[in-house]
Design brief:
globular; binds zinc ion; three-stranded antiparallel sheet
């Protein structure tokens, strides 16, 4: 549930350069501030590129430098049909694969590389291995020197 216009700031600053904070529990998007926790009382605020946040429903996962999931929002768990304990410490590449394997490149790997050093990936399509028809849009975003990457998932 968004509380602000996520794509363009009032001064017209493009989304690719804008940062927002998103709650790791309820996925509420707010302007960046010094606050560390969401008003919902359950989640930490994650700093992400505004361009990583889609206009449609989304959920967030947080992965560490080994690409293992260590946090999943309520909506991410709903989208994936999994409980938190089923996701924690799971390698991202075990849970998701490129939706289009015909390209011969790994969009998932490239997306993760794009987030290194504080970047943001373009939106890519991923699927759940072994499960036909389940596809998601994914972006990877990392804020500056923070030690984790935020994965934004939405239905395709
Ligand atoms: Zn929240």
């Amino acid at each position: 549930m968004a509380q602000i216009d996520r794509r363009t700031a009032p001064d017209g600053q493009p989304a690719v350069e804008r940062m927002v904070d998103v709650c790791g529990h309820c996925d509420t998007v707010v302007e960046p501030s010094d606050r560390l926790t969401c008003q919902c009382g359950h989640g930490s605020l994650l700093r992400v590129h505004a361009a990583a946040i889609p206009e449609r429903t989304f959920g967030t996962l947080v992965v560490d430098d080994r690409l293992r999931i260590f946090a999943a929002s309520q909506e991410a768990r709903t989208l994936l049909g999994l409980e938190a304990q089923d996701l924690l410490d799971l390698p991202l590449t075990e849970r998701f694969a490129d939706a289009d394997q015909a390209t011969g490149t790994s969009a998932l790997t490239e997306a993760m590389w794009a987030a290194v050093d504080g970047g943001c990936s373009p939106e890519i399509a991923v699927r759940v291995p072994e499960e036909y028809g389940l596809r998601y849009a994914m972006t990877a975003s990392r804020a500056g020197t923070r030690p984790s990457t935020v994965i934004v998932l939405s239905p395709l």
